[in-house]
Amino acid sequence: MDINALFTDEGLRAFTATVRDQHVRDAQQYGQIADIVRRRLEQTPIEGDRWMSKKLRAWKVSRQLKAMQKASGEAASKAEALYATYVNEVLELPQRRAAAEAKRLERKQGRQAALGAAVAKSLDKTVTALSIPTEQAPGAVPQARPAEFVTPDNPWNQWPMAAGGERPTSTINDYFAKGEGQ
């Protein structure tokens, strides 16, 4: 037997089919022999037997052959399981991994597209909210505070006092220009 042939699909299939067939034949033979032995021992008395001694003795002996039959049937099943596991874990693994990678990439591209759309929507809202007022010249830097509060001579008087100052403000909205549509 060429051991390298076991690592191909055809080689392993042939090996497992041969082993399976041999175990199936063995299981059939063990079953037939168990029936023959049981029947023969049930009909053969031994001196000193009681009422059910023959049947009990026949059952004990044939039980071992039935266990051999069961083991051979399980071995045949295991041969098929060997081939199925080899195909699943070795032969089909590259295709499954490639499909999984393609699915991951597709999900990643979908997330990136959704994120791009959310960023575009957010930027659109920001541009709309911060649109240039009509009285301001294009390209000019907008003032965050009205010009009358800024005094370049004294930096401490740059901000009005909240309470008791010479120019108290009524609300915070006095510092910000009102947008259109509000």
Task: Outline the structure in words.
- This protein is mostly helical.
- It is 61% helix and 0% strand.
- The protein starts with 8 loop residues before the first helix and ends in a 53-residue tail after the last helix.
The count of strands amounts to: 0
Low-confidence stretches: none
Alpha plus pi helix count = 3
Strand content: under 5%
Cα-atom radius of gyration? 45 Å
Helix content: 55-70%
Shape: elongated
Main sheet summary: none
- Secondary-structure-derived class: mainly alpha
SSE succession: HHH
Mean pLDDT: 82
Distance between the termini: 87 Å
Summary, kept brief:
With 182 residues, this protein is mostly helical. 61% of the residues lie in helices and 0% in strands.
